[in-house]
Fold this protein.
Amino acid sequence: MADGLAEFEDERTLTRDLLWFLDMTTGPDGQRLSFDERMDEVRERYPSDHYVIRALDLGMPERVGAVERATAWLSSAGLDHV
């Protein structure tokens, strides 16, 4: 899988951070959730040894960073109520 993904550059941009923020703060039915609520919701749906949970844990530092950067940008743009 790593070989297949290697052809795609990880776009470390505000756009990526905002997309991740939206994904990490929106529930499966479109409801707004905090980042922590969303992570809890995902963990409730899958067993602890499931690949989704392993991927979630492995990428958590990147997810947290993206959400923090997106939140800071939204606040600086006067959109912190979003």
